[in-house]
From TrEMBL:
Pfam families referenced in this protein's UniProt entry, alphabetically: NSUN5_fdxn-like (PF21148)
Encoding gene per record: LOC110979823
Name recorded for this polypeptide: Methyltransferase NSUN7
Keywords noted in UniProt: Methyltransferase, RNA-binding, S-adenosyl-L-methionine, Transferase
Similarity annotation: Belongs to the class I-like SAM-binding methyltransferase superfamily. RsmB/NOP family.
Keyword Zinc-finger annotated: no
Keyword Lipid biosynthesis assigned: no
Positions in coiled-coil regions: none
A GO molecular function held by the record: methyltransferase activity
GO biological process: methylation
Renumbered residue ranges of the record's region Disordered: 14-34, 560-629
Domain of life: Eukaryota
Length: 689
C-alpha cells in the first residue's frame, strides 16, 4: 500500500489503476495552478494555459490548448460509463457545468474544441472499450480526473486514423497533455487492433457505422447542410450584396440543388437570405461582408420567425422577443422593421457582460431600435406602460434542440449552452426533462398572451417533438380562450405562418395551421406557429394577402398580373349583349311591362256580361326595379394578391403559398347574379299567392 501511495502521489482511493507502462510522473489536470475561477467552476482561466486571441488558430489539426478545453467540456457532459469494464466513480461526474471558453477568442479554435468534445461524447463507448481491450486500462479501472483528457486525445487520434500529429510552428505546449499524448501514441498498434476487432464484431464498414442510427443520420445531415446568411439591409440592399459577391468570384445559381464551390442562391422563403455551399465556410467567415456586418451567418430555421413577425406588424407596432440568446435573431428582426417607429424589447439577457456583447453587435450592424432587458419576463406586469404599443410577441424558448443537425454551429452562432452536445450525442432524450421543458413553454406562452394589446404571438422552436410543438400551442390557446371573455376581446386562434411555400412543401405539412420542418441536409428541423387574436371571419388567405401587400413576396412582371386580374374580374362581371339581342330584349321588356300594367279599371265577369256593375281595381304588382348600379366583382384575398405569389393563375385560382382551407374555397366561389324573373319573384309582396 505504501508503494501504491507513493506511485499515485499519496492518493489511492479513486485513482486510476492503469497499465504498468504508464509513467508515474504524470501531472494531473487538476494540479495546474489557477489564477481566477468563477463560482461553480463555469469560467476558468489557467496560469500556464495560453489564451488564444482572435485569428490565432489557423492550423488544420488540434493542439494542446484544444485538448485541454475539450477535455473540460467532455468531462462536464459525459454520462455514466459506457462500458461495463470500467468501474464507476460517481463523485467525478456530479455538479459540473460546461466551461464558457472565455479564454479562447478565436472562433475557429472554439469550434475545434466543441467538435472534439462532441466526437468524444458520440464515440465514448467505443473509446472506453478500446482503452480496456488494448490493455491501456486494466479491467478494474476506476476513471479519475485524467480520464477525460485521455479519451479526448484518443478521439483525435481516431479522427486522423492514428497518424502522427503535425505540430504547427510556435505551437503552445502543456506538459501534462504532452505526457498523455506520447503515452497513447506508444500504444497505437494495440489501440488500432482493438478498433479493428470492434468493427469486425459489429460488421461496421466504417467507424461512423458504429454510432446509433439517429445520431448517424443527424451527423450526415449536419455535414451536408449549406450555409445560410441574411443580408443586413440597414447597410446594403440584397441586390448590392449579390453584385459584390459576383465581383468577388461567386456565381449565382437558380436553386439550392445547384450549389457548388464559390456559388450561392437566394432562399425561396426568405428573400433576404443567401445560401452558400458548406465548403465555403472559412472563406465566407473571413470575407469583409461578414466581418463588416453586411452578412450575418445564421441557420435558416432561426430566420423563419422574424419573417413571420414582419408580416404581422403595422406602422408603429412594437415587438417583444423572448429569449434573445446570441442576439442574432433579434438583430435580424430589427433589420426587417422600421428603425424609427418600431421598438423591440429583447428579454433573456443574463448579465452585464452579456448585455455589453449584445449592444456591441447591434452597434456593429447599425441597429438602434432594440432595448435589451435583464428583467425576468415572468415578473413583468402586463399593464407596464413600456409595452403599451406591443402588438406582436416572438417566443423562441430554450427547447430540446432535437431538430438541430449541427450542434457545434448552433452553440457558436446562437449562444446556446454547451449541454446540448451531451443531449444530441445520445439516441433518445430524457422524458422527464422533456416534460419540464413543455411546462416552461406553456407558462411562457400564457404570460405572453395575457398582454392586453398583443394581437399575435409567434412561437418558434428547433424541436421536432409533438409534445413541445403542436400540443403546446393547442393547449395554451384553449386555456387562454376559456379564461378570457369573448365579448371583450377576440379569442386567439391558430393561423398559418405567412411564408410563401411551394405546393410540394405544403403537401409535406401535417396541418395548414403551422409549419413543421423535419431535419434534412438542406436545413435543420423547426416548428413555427402563430396564435392571432383575429376576427373569425378572416380567412387564412386574408392573413397571407395582408402580408403579401407589405412586400413579403416578390412581385412578378406587371403584364402577367394585369392579365390575371382582368380575367378574374371579367369572369365575375355581367356579360354584355349584342345589339340585336339588346333590341329583342327591349321589345320583350316593353310588351311584358304593358301586359303587367294593364287597364286602370276592368269589369267583373258578371258586370261585363250584363254591361253594368261596380268597377273593381285589379291588384297592382309592386315590382322593385333592379338597381342600375354595376355589380362589383368579389374581392377575395386570393384574387387581389395572387400576383404576389405566382406568375400565372392556377387551375383553382388559388395562389401558391395560400393554404387550401374551406373558408378560402367558399370565398372564392363567384356569386350568381339573379335574372329579372327571379328579381320580380323576390321583391313581390306575396310571391306564393
Amino acid at each position: 500500500m505504501a508503494l501504491l501511495s507513493q506511485h499515485y502521489g499519496g492518493r489511492v482511493p479513486g485513482m486510476i489503476k492503469a497499465h504498468s507502462s504508464v509513467p508515474s510522473t504524470r501531472r494531473k489536470a487538476d494540479s495546474i495552478p489557477t489564477s481566477t475561477m468563477s463560482a461553480g467552476g463555469c469560467e476558468v482561466t489557467l496560469d500556464g494555459i495560453p489564451i488564444l486571441p482572435e485569428n490565432s488558430d489557423r492550423g488544420q489539426g488540434c493542439n494542446h490548448v484544444i485538448y485541454h478545453y475539450a477535455s473540460q467540456v467532455f468531462g462536464s457532459l459525459r454520462p455514466a460509463k459506457k462500458t461495463d469494464k470500467l468501474l464507476l466513480d460517481v463523485d467525478l461526474r456530479s455538479g459540473k457545468e460546461p466551461p464558457k471558453l472565455t479564454a479562447i477568442k478565436d472562433e475557429r479554435a472554439k469550434r475545434k474544441v466543441y467538435d472534439l468534445a462532441f466526437d468524444a461524447l458520440k464515440y465514448q463507448a467505443l473509446l472506453e472499450d478500446m482503452l480496456v481491450d488494448s490493455g491501456y486500462y486494466s479491467y478494474d479501472t476506476v476513471p479519475d480526473e485524467n480520464h477525460s483528457i485521455i479519451v479526448v486525445i484518443l478521439c483525435d487520434m481516431l479522427n486522423r486514423h492514428f497518424a502522427k500529429r503535425l505540430r504547427e510552428p510556435n505551437e503552445p505546449v502543456i506538459p501534462y497533455v504532452q505526457e498523455f499524448e506520447d503515452d497513447l501514441f506508444a500504444h497505437t498498434t494495440k489501440l488500432n487492433a482493438s478498433l479493428a476487432r470492434n468493427r469486425i464484431k459489429f460488421q461496421a464498414r466504417s467507424v461512423e457505422c458504429l454510432l446509433p442510427e439517429k445520431v448517424r443520420q443527424r451527423e450526415e445531415c449536419g455535414t451536408k447542410m449549406p450555409i445560410y446568411a441574411w443580408v443586413n439591409q440597414l447597410q446594403n440592399s440584397v441586390e448590392d450584396v449579390i453584385e459584390q459577391l459576383t465581383q468577388d468570384g461567386y456565381k449565382k445559381v437558380p436553386s439550392i440543388n445547384s450549389l457548388g464551390e464559390y456559388s450561392f442562391t437566394v432562399d425561396s422563403q426568405c428573400p433576404n437570405v443567401l445560401v452558400f455551399d458548406a465548403q465555403n465556410r472559412n472563406t465566407l467567415e473571413d470575407s469583409y461582408l461578414v466581418r463588416g456586418g453586411n452578412l450575418v451567418i445564421q441557420d435558416k430555421s432561426c430566420c423563419l420567425g422574424p419573417h413571420s413577425v414582419k408580416a404581422l406588424l403595422n406602422e408603429g407596432d412594437d415587438v417583444i422577443h423572448i429569449y434573445t440568446g446570441s442576439g442574432w435573431t433579434t438583430a435580424h428582426l430589427a433589420t426587417l422593421t422600421n428603425q424609427e417607429h418600431c421598438t423591440i424589447y429583447a428579454f433573456g439577457v443574463k448579465n452585464e457582460e452579456h448585455s455589453e456583447q449584445l449592444m456591441a453587435n447591434a452597434k456593429k450592424l447599425g441597429i438602434h431600435n432594440v432595448k435589451f432587458i435583464q428583467d425576468n419576463f415572468f415578473e413583468v406586469q402586463h399593464i407596464d406602460n413600456r409595452f403599451k404599443n406591443v402588438k406582436v410577441v416572438l417566443v423562441t424558448p430554450h427547447d430540446s434542440r432535437s431538430g438541430v443537425t449541427n450542434p457545434v454551429e448552433y452553440i457558436i452562432h446562437e449562444g446556446a449552452d454547451a449541454s446540448i452536445l451531451g443531449e444530441l450525442s445520445q439516441e433518445q432524450i430524457d422524458s422527464d426533462k422533456l416534460d419540464v421543458l413543455v411546462s416552461k413553454h406553456m407558462e411562457l406562452l400564457k404570460h405572453a398572451m395575457k398582454f392586453p394589446h398583443v394581437q399575435a404571438v409567434v412561437y418558434a422552436t428547433n424541436s421536432i417533438f409533438r409534445e413541445e410543438n403542436e400540443n403546446v400551442v393547442t393547449k395554451v390557446t384553449e386555456y387562454i380562450n376559456a379564461r378570457t371573455s369573448t365579448s371583450i376581446r377576440n379569442p386567439f386562434r391558430l393561423i398559418p405562418p405567412v411564408l410563401p411555400l411551394t405546393p410540394a412543401e405544403l403537401e409535406k405539412q401535417p396541418s395548414s395551421k403551422f409549419i413543421k420542418m423535419e431535419p434534412s441536409s438542406s436545413m435543420g428541423g423547426c416548428f413555427l406557429s402563430v396564435m392571432s387574436r383575429e376576427d373569425e371571419s378572416m380567412s387564412a388567405s386574408d392573413v397571407i394577402a395582408r402580408a403579401a401587400a407589405k412586400g413579403l413576396c416578390s412581385l412578378p412582371p406587371a403584364k402577367a398580373t394585369a392579365t390575371t386580374t382582368s380575367a378574374q374580374g371579367d369572369e365575375l362581371k355581367p356579360k354584355k349583349k349584342s345589339s340585336k339581342t339588346s333590341q329583342k330584349s327591349l321589345t320583350k321588356s316593353a310588351s311584358a311591362k304593358k301586359e303587367r300594367k294593364g287597364p286602370k279599371t276592368s269589369k267583373s265577369p258578371t258586370a261585363d256580361h250584363h254591361g253594368h256593375g261596380p268597377t273593381v281595381r285589379s291588384p297592382t304588382l309592386l315590382v322593385k326595379k333592379p338597381s342600375s348600379k354595376r355589380l362589383r366583382p368579389i374581392r377575395t384575398a386570393s384574387l387581389m394578391f395572387a400576383h404576389h405569389f405566382t406568375n400565372s393563375s392556377t387551375s383553382d385560382r388559388q395562389p401558391y403559398g395560400v393554404p387550401m382551407t374551406k373558408a378560402s374555397l367558399v370565398r372564392m366561389q363567384p356569386k350568381a347574379e339573379p335574372v329579372r324573373p327571379h328579381q320580380e319573384a323576390i321583391h313581390h309582396p306575396k310571391p306564393f299567392l
